[in-house]
Specification:
The protein has 333 residues and is an alpha/beta fold. 47% of the residues lie in helices and 18% in strands. It contains 14 helices and 11 strands. The strands form 2 sheets. Strands 2-1-3-10-4-11 form a 6-stranded mixed β-sheet, sandwiched between helices. Strands 7-6-8-5-9 form a 5-stranded mixed β-sheet, with helices on both faces. Helix 8 links the parallel strand 6 and strand 7. The radius of gyration is 24 Å and the shape is globular.
């Protein structure tokens, strides 16, 4: 055996090849394999304490545990969520700045604002879907109304004399109620409040006929007997409100009203990084402890999806909601 063969044993030759391949690998490939090697910023474009923020913090803790680096919540609220999402869209596409946002900043705001500082389709890439936020139609308990037919009968008896409340122009609650009144063929006036709190105050006082909002907002008042839940705007009954019918069951077929949460990254983020994030987020959502807390929050977890499936879902939502919002003629700028 030659000196060369004795020195370069099979094991040494394998190690040498590995070193050569590593030296030849592009720097980005090595960085992708090591991701994450420092804290990741998860931007929530809404105030702390809200429904979106609460779920984001729950999942950030799980992502931190899985990936070995802190996922730090950064609340950047304003302009209907546009400020925070724009900040991520303009960040380096390296996986260290992510947006945890909603249907609103992805599609609804496209129809509500004449000009946005970012393109939600071109400047951002979907990572994973997390939860769907169904809306619940509620009336003051003092009204005595307990069913959808009873509510519609009242609204039709005095056209134009009743009001519905929303948390503001262009919010999910506004759009949901607008579509509901159209489908039901009733003439009801919209009152836009500056947030959910004032809207619920007037609803509880009986100054407003009805409203739609997320379970996290209305469930405590339903359980306290202050609001009557008429229907949930999703295909199946909710575990947190098992005795409340769907709109289909209540007599209005195919009415859907909801929002959803998801994670996005800046366009151009490497695919291996996106795949890691997708897998980790799916695992976080499915974790039994997280799943229980998600259910208690009154939201519905999405099943695990690949990035391709997530993108397909989002584009279908975009194609539905953007034209619908534009037909409402509401502009926020």
């Amino acid at each position: 055996m030659s000196t060369f063969s004795r020195y370069f044993s099979p094991r040494r030759r394998a190690l040498a090849c590995a070193f050569v391949l590593a030296a030849l690998a592009p720097p980005t490939a090595l960085a992708d394999a090591a991701y994450p090697n420092r804290p990741v910023r998860l931007v929530v474009p809404f105030p702390a304490g809200g429904n979106t923020d609460q779920v984001a913090r729950l999942l950030a803790q799980s992502l931190t545990e899985q990936m070995g680096q802190p996922f730090v919540i950064d609340n950047k609220a304003g302009a209907g969520g546009n400020i925070g999402v724009d900040n991520v869209a303009k960040s380096a596409p390296d996986g260290y700045s992510l947006a945890y946002s909603t249907l609103s900043t992805y599609a609804l705001n496209v129809g509500l604002y004449s000009k946005l500082p970012f393109d939600s389709v071109k400047d951002l890439v979907p990572v994973a879907l997390t939860v769907r936020v169904p809306l619940v139609l509620v009336v003051p308990a003092s009204s005595g109304i307990k069913t959808l037919p009873e509510l519609l009968q009242l609204l039709k008896s005095r056209p134009g004399q009743f009001n519905y409340a929303s948390a503001g122009n262009g919010t999910s609650s506004h759009i949901a109620c607008h579509v509901f009144t159209r489908m039901a063929g009733v003439d009801v006036q919209h009152i836009a409040y500056k947030g959910t709190g004032p809207a619920m105050t007037d609803l509880l006082a009986g100054r407003i006929a009805f409203a739609m909002d997320a379970p996290s907002v209305v469930n405590p008042m339903i359980k306290a007997g202050r609001l009557n839940a008429i229907a949930v705007a999703v295909p199946q009954r909710m575990k947190s409100l098992p005795n409340v019918p769907t709109f289909d069951e209540a007599g209005m077929k195919n009415f859907r009203a909801y929002s959803w949460n998801a994670i996005w990254a800046p366009a151009g983020t490497p695919a291996p990084v996106l795949d890691k994030l997708n897998a980790a987020t799916n695992k976080a959502v499915a974790d039994p402890v997280n799943a229980k807390r998600i259910e208690e929050a009154g939201v519905v977890a999405f099943p695990a999806m690949t990035r391709a499936e997530v993108e397909k879902f989002m584009r279908s939502e975009y194609d539905v909601w953007v034209p619908l919002v534009r037909t409402m003629g509401v502009k926020l700028d």
